[in-house]
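[step 3/7] fold_predict: job queued, chain A
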Amino acid sequence: MQTGTPSKNLISYRASAGSGKTYTLAVEYISLCLTTKDSSYFRKILAITFTNKAAAELKERILDFTKHLITAEDGDDMLIAVEERCHIGAEQIRSRAKKVFSQMLYSYADIHVSTIDHFVLSILKAFSKEMGLSFDFKVELDQGRISELLVDELMRHIGQDEFITETLVAYSYSKLDDGSSWNPRRDLVASTQELFKESSAEALNALGELDDEVIRSGIETLKIQMDLLKKHILVTQKEAKDLLITNGLELSDFHGVSKSPAAIFSRDMDAMGYQPTDGQRNKMDEMAPSGKSKNRGTAETLIPGLIDLGTSIVKDCDMRMLISLVHKERLSLLLANRLSKLLKQLEKEEDMSLLSGNNQRIANVVRGNPAPFIYERLGERFRHFLIDEFQDTSLNQWHNFLPLIDNSLSQGYKNLLVGDAKQSIYRWRNSEVEQIIALPDIHKKGEDSELNRMSELMARTHDSKGLNVNYRSAKAIIAFNNSLFSSLRALLSPELALAYSDVDQEHRKTSKGYVEIHFIEKDVRLEDRFEQILSWIGSCQSDGYALGEIGILVRKNREGQAIANALQEHGIAVNSSDSLLLYGSDNVHLLLNFLQFIHGKKQAKADLFVLHHILERYDEPLRFHELAKAYHYKGSSVLWELFKEKDLQINLKLHLSESIYESAERLCREIWLDEGDPYLQEFMNRLLLHSLNADSSLDGFMEEFERSKWKWSITAAPSEDAVQLMTIHRSKGLQFPVVILPYWKSKTRGHSPKEWFPWDSEPFAQVMLPLTGKLENTPYTPALQREKELQAMDELNLLYVACTRPETRLYMTMVEEGTLVGAVKNHLEPRMEGSIYMEGSAEPHVSKLTSEAQELGKPIPKADPKVLLRTTARSESLYSKEREFGKMVHKILEKNERLEDVPFFIDQMSSGMSLSTDERIELERSVKAALHTEKELKLGERGFVCSKEQEILSPDGRISRLDRLYLTPSNQSAVILDFKTGKPDKKDLQQMERYQELLKAMGYAETEAYLLYTQNAELIQVRS
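[step 4/7] structure written:
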């Protein structure tokens, strides 16, 4: 299906916030489907998004809109939009929509809407042989695990490998000099993240070919070069000084005296950090004799030679500084070398591929093959590509798509690129905002002839369209954002400022809206603003807003944790996966420290934490100093004496004989911790999963907890009567009636990003350097300037995303520090009253949430049995729904073992049922994940034959039904596989252990048992 206008088949939509991007994308998709009579044409369209949630939403919109068109009346907005694109009549659209909708339901899996990572994986599997991977390799998602393994491997060589030992010791000393912790482990783990970036792939490959001796020799060469430069600088200085002394000249004979470029000859060049002043560097050619000098003539004669000597010193100083930076980053070279080798080793041993490196792998294959060959391997030939959130694509991702899009455009097929440069906030995930700004040109195409040819084709076929109507926000909010960001674009470089050329939006809502901005001094802390946050929430509630309609956005999880705790202390419920961290729970900290004490980890910090808690519980905090002093001399016996005094029955013998999980359960009872605490419950779930690992030790869990403490959180059930709290990054794509930004503070200087640069000194082709001011006056100064410009854009884009989330109200506090906040205040100051800016009107609000929905989120009074009965009924209804879902998963797994047949069985079993699109997607995902994980066990290859839903009779007459029972023909070995749709539960383990005992009693000496949780495809081996 060619559109007939090859000159305008590449459409890029500039979709500003709230402009109906998903709606437009869905309408374009449906229009492509309806332009042809082929009702299964949707199989030829590939839509790419960046998150599973966005993919599910778009897929649901496509189905809903197609269904809507079947009965759409003349004049319907969507019908008109499709008519304009398809150039066919309304009756034809309705007729075709009916056929397409029916075909989509029958072939749901053929609606190709997926994440970019999923598509990358399909290409990776198609070309696994060319990439040296087995056909059933696994993709490693956990970069943190690889980082830990790498650092562990490095640390193991301390004391054994002289080179590594010297390098790490020197690094530790440099950290001490900076006033940081001497222990390099945390910094090493953090620094490895730089190595997972796409830009590191080439350097990793090159460094991975070098052995330790070559790396050592290269680093020693750097040191030698610095020493030689230092000597040359000193020799040049001496030559200049001798020339001056011989001719009777002094520094006072030159214009500017100490500020004269000639002063470079008398400076102490022995210090590594010394750099020539700007005057010496930029005005060397302006060296002149002093007007008061008696030796003016002599000085004029010598100046040409002195300028040459001074220029030589400046050049040598710059080179010495650059080499010193490379030498200081020698650990990065060592880490890159080891990481490359470790990845190759893990890929071979564990048959895995690291997700972050896949785009580069594919680039090496895709760019060397024509599009028809790629299609042949994929098993699909797509004619149209629709890429959403284009501003978030990485360079390799975009370049890997280009051959397919080029092939589509050359045949006259339509393609869409949808995005908004103003909402590019994921640069740390390799996205390059310049790609969408550069369209239709191809960013970083260089001298590549093929990329240049594609760029010319894109330029001929490109048409840019803007979505400039905001359907989300009220008039005052849109006017505020239009005015503010039109002004703030001046903070960006001319090239990047193009992103804000379309910032002005029209409003459609009739409500006025309200904006309130407070400016505070930089020494005011977040904690000092809690009362203001509570006041804003109270005002909104008074005006009719439900708590569930209020979104609080923060920059950091730590800020969110503090706000969540403060709100909960005031009785305000909070719904947040970002901020309800286990790490922020006092009960979790207490249990962790008690566990360390009970199991003899001899950590004073943990022991004193326990001591303080016990004294606080018994209202005796003043005794802490006395007992802490006694602890210093007597150790843990002080605690045991206190337990005895307070009659705390802690059975040490039982604790030491139990698993860590069982010990934690016992402690909760012994020290009266509230086992209903959701933080503790989630903590115990994590502990249970850890106890099933090969390393189930407390030390292993402590390492895992430390690594994941900013990720592990409780999952609060969505509640209409709970404030939604999240980071600005997570809020992208969402909207809230009310948005509160409680503490906007410009990003302070922290960890400097690093970048690989070309290096022409053997053995290093590239070196990694931090993008700091020390790169000024080096060949890499343009990269430093570019980083500064992109950081300014990151900051502005984050503010734009935050300010475009609200529908009717925006409240914000800004700390008066930094260029961006200063520019915001300067823009608003003419209309401010004191330190507060207000615009619009805080009108009363009619909540969209029903009173019944709000009632569900409120605490249930124990004295009202009617309410309790009503709540119980609802809970049973929810439980029943979850149970029915579990039954369907089990039923499909019972009847089917082929991934491709899953949609058919879902259609068959859901006939006559009210199954929503989301439920269907979740059902298909759960079943496919379970089948895929089952196949990874490779039981068929081991000679096992499968029986489904196998019943076995126990001696007491009970019948047990096993989801999967695998037996060998010799009937000596057995494998049990049981599917679970809920969360890990201790009862599941006990059930599987009973199954194993039954099979052993039946004569199966060798039995294996596995629990497969379908919700996240988690496979747990049960050891009896």
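[step 5/7] annotate
Residues 850-880 have pLDDT under 50 and may be disordered.
Residues 212-246 form the longest helix (35 residues).
exit 0
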